[in-house]
Known about the structure:
The structure is a single chain. This protein is mainly α. It has 3 domains: 4-105, no CATH class; 108-135, no CATH class; 148-393, MetI-like (MetI-like fold). The protein is built from 13 helices and 6 strands. It has helices spanning 4-19, 40-63, 67-105, 131-134, 148-179, 184-197, 201-216, 222-246, 250-258, 263-290, 295-300, 338-348, 358-393; strands spanning 28-29, 38-39, 110-117, 124-129, 317-319, 326-328. Helix 2 (40-63) runs antiparallel to helix 3, helix 6 (184-197) packs across helix 8 and helix 8 (222-246) crosses helix 10 (263-290). The protein is globular.
Amino acid sequence: MGSTIPVAAILLLLGGFIVTGGIGAGWTWSPAWSSAEFPGSELVPILVVFGTLLGAWSAGKAKEGFGAEGRQAGAYYLIGSVVFAMLAVLALLIAFIVTNGLQTMLTGTSLFGGQFTVPFVGVGLPWPEFPFLMNQTGGLYVEIPGVLPAVIGTLWLVFGAVSFTVPLGIGAAVFLTEYAERGRFTQVVEIATNGLWSTPSIVFGLFGLAFLVPRISGGNSIVVGQLVLGFMLLPLVLITSREAILAVPDAHRDASAALGVTKWQTIRSVVLPAAMPGTITGVILGVGRIAGETAPLLLVFGGSPYPSNTPNVLTSFTLTAQPPFVTNEALLSPASALPYQLYSTITAGVFPKEIFTNTEFGWGTALVLLLVVVGLYAIGVGSRLYFRRKLHHE
């Protein structure tokens, strides 16, 4: 009773102020120790959340009769309320972006307005038309500007960073867990890895601008952007891969060694498949971060925010007589990406066509970026489930 009566009094006081209009939309709090003003439209939701958490904790204690069980139940309800609040904030954020960007993204959309020509046959089939997703951003003959070059640029950035980072990170994790002895060297590597993961992204961008750009492309380019984002992703892949490998039971290694196989065969056929779901989890988390990075791209990647063509990376490979004997003009050229284009739209206040304002085009770009990140998450989650199911069946 001693812990519920004060809580009930606080909740009744807060509820009374809100219901009677003592704290409403027109009310403003101006504390003497600060020049900021806090309107009631912002304070009321905060007070409601605070009251909900406090009430959940007190109700859980009262339900289980106080004591140790009551405190445990109170903590359980409190944690559940916090999780629900986090999911509610996430849902509110997604709903806000969808509400503001959906109309822009669906401008000119026709379910069967497009046409798809079947390769080698030449037959045209009805195809959905999404101008905002399928059109170039700039150009004289583009009526509805789209974000296709930025989408392709974002996918190339993520693909290049993952292709560069995953083999290197998994290889380093295998060496540190299976070959290197636990000692000062591995401790130094752990400290350095954690430090790199917590390093601000702008520092990676400055490193790319000062060290990579003069030696690789001489200017902003896709390949430098891929390397910079790969360096950002590498610490997380190494950390999660190492933890996943350490989580594999030693009994699996002992059983494999009892069959007479070599250490490398054990790692390749037993340890890595068992650790793959955890490794993919780290890759998923890292991809979600690098796909939305803006600061490094401003320094090493971006060219025109509204290009009139997409980067043709696959068709730009050429053979040369000098090392490295293969070049790709598209990879050595700047491009656009969704975060970079969104930043340019908001800060510069420019937009490619008068059909959209810069705000409308920015919200549409933000929604497409959200869909791209969710799509990458879906691919990662599907891969993790596939390897987990395959591991259990075998």
